[in-house]
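Students often ask what a 'structure token' actually looks like in practice. Rather than answer in the abstract, let us consider Iron complex outermembrane receptor protein, a protein of 713 residues. Its sequence is given first.
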Amino acid sequence: MPSRQRAVPRAALSSTLLVSSLALATPVTAQTAPESAATLSEISVSGTGRPAGPAETAGSLTVPSVAAQRAAVNATVGSVAFVDATTFQNRYANTVRDVLKDVPGVFVQERYGQEMRLSIRGSGIARGFHVRGIELLQDGIPLNLADGSGDFYQIDPLSLRSVEVYKGGNALTFGATTLGGAVNFVTPTAYTALAPNVLRIDGGSFNTIREHFQVSRISGPADVLISGTLTNSDGFRDHETQRTRNFNANFGYQLAPGIETRFYLGFYDTDQKLPGSLTLFNALNTPRLANPAAITGNQSRKVTTERIANRTSFELEVGRLDIDSWAIHKNLEHPIFQVIDQDGWTYGVAPRWAGTFDLGGFRNDLILGLRAFAGINEARQFVNVAGLRGAQTLDARQSASNYEAYAENRFWFLPDVALMTGAKLFSSNRTYSNRGGLPASPTARFANVTYEGINPKLGLLWQPLPDIQVFADVTRSRDVPDFSDLVQTNTLGTTFVPLAAQRAWTYEAGSRGRIDRLAWDVTLYRAELRDALINFTPNPGLNIPAATFNAPRTRHQGVEAAVTLDLTEDLTGIGDRLSLTQIWTHNDFRFVGDPVFGNNRIAGVPVNVLRTVLSYRHPSGFYFAPALDWVPEGAFADHANTLKVPGYALLGLQTGIDFANGVSLFVDARNLTDERYVSDIAVVTNAATVAGGPVAFFPGNGRSVFGGVRASF
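Now compare that with the structural description of the same chain:
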């Protein structure tokens, strides 16, 4: 018979599903885990030289403790990663790359400021703007616009407590079934914060200065946390000035035993100058230059976002019910090839139930969820006159809606083996109205398209020992085109480009675990794609958005590996430790019998990306961690494979000390050899046909040093 999991005030494990994830090696009828059980929640292959963190707080019903969050991630049948904020709090963590660079299989490359490319398993591999194929969430609640596109501007690394990475179809736990999966950025609550009060100031190269504060309090059934970060930087390149203001807050209240509600509020304001792309010669020889068109057009990105969200959680007789709701308002002023002016809302609701119960005498873990979310975006464009609005060229409305139902089940037919099954049904509509009436767009136009389907998932999880897992699974993904894909100039003269949804079957097998001083997380995968959404820049000199088309067949396969070895302990006889971490991401992405590109490599991402970290930590709080980021061969710049950028090696160093009184000092030095390299590429079709070479390259940052002081009390 199902047994009820008793409510514990501010409990670390707020549902029977989370409890079961901590007890994977116990008999199938067990509903709780013995305190002494060794669990995968402690496995880490991060190479930062940081400790596990302070003693865990209990968490609460809406937001479990960090240990429980880690355990839930590691219970997934498939490739996942968990990043504790303690591993990056002593860096100059300004971008998503700074947060995720130790996660194998996650390719994040900076362009400038907060502009970057995020790709997992080749998702949006040649996409030069926005995020495609990855769902971004904050506290489990979507951040993407309703059409699926997303940005990083409202993610503040200093206001995070952890990050959960679910690669590919493993993100079904959130209802996401895109090729790349989902990344969940979890903010702290008063229960999970590292300290009730945090003050921090950073500074360094490129006239950078950043201030941060965080305050949290618990009073009876209520708790509150408020944080804010102000960043000012001139940037490495000309015309790259960045000014950001980010504020996050959450307020929780225990309405009754086993019932809690939590409101999230956010305000995010970014003013980022854009230096644009360069020729390959200039990117490698005069990397600080800005593209002349970026200066004459005063190209920039000014975006203001307000967010309100709520999670209300109910502990039931069996399992837990979470009901999420959210509304996001975004205003964008974006002078590039034209002045893009957009203002819109995204809103949704998502109930989700998760629980553990006996099924025929065997343990069964089940997740059931629904999501309904939509958005309306007023899209206007104007002639760019030195960054100001000239004549209006577009007056349109973009409307998107999505209805989804999903389920994921783990049936433990043996004490240490689980069969995982799951599926998602979806219907996604995209509607576009061009009102016309303008000299540049005199005729009103309308377009409407709906994408529907089902994405199944099947897998096995074997846990021979409490801290070792082996898994294999197959998942189906579909990526629906967003408005940037659908609404583009085309020779057919249609309002929407006739694009199909990208479909893929992904097969993966891997293992994660720890034996004595060795920890590992290794996955091999292969994805067979149909109608892949591929991007290229038709005329890089104009700095216009990329064109999108469906490639009939492509194949993405690779290796996601991280291994950490504790080399030695007690070097000085008092508990210090020296560890070595190797991270390897292998990307083999190709066209398959394409009528234009044959079996060429898909441009934009290098084949091998390696990161090596040697970390030393002393019980006094002193730590020292040199790191080498190595790309042996650069990526192709074009799908015709006629031009490849050089490989590179970047040497960095982190050092600092954490004092017992809560004060921490750190130094983060990057690219110490001042390597000239290309960080990212605006992919083209055939570089050999572009006179003078494509203006499609973004130089990486030169030598830089940042330092900071943090007080936690």
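One point worth highlighting: Helices lie at 16-21, 66-74, 96-100, 280-285, 292-296, 483-486. Ask yourself how you might have guessed this from the sequence alone, and why that guess would often be unreliable.
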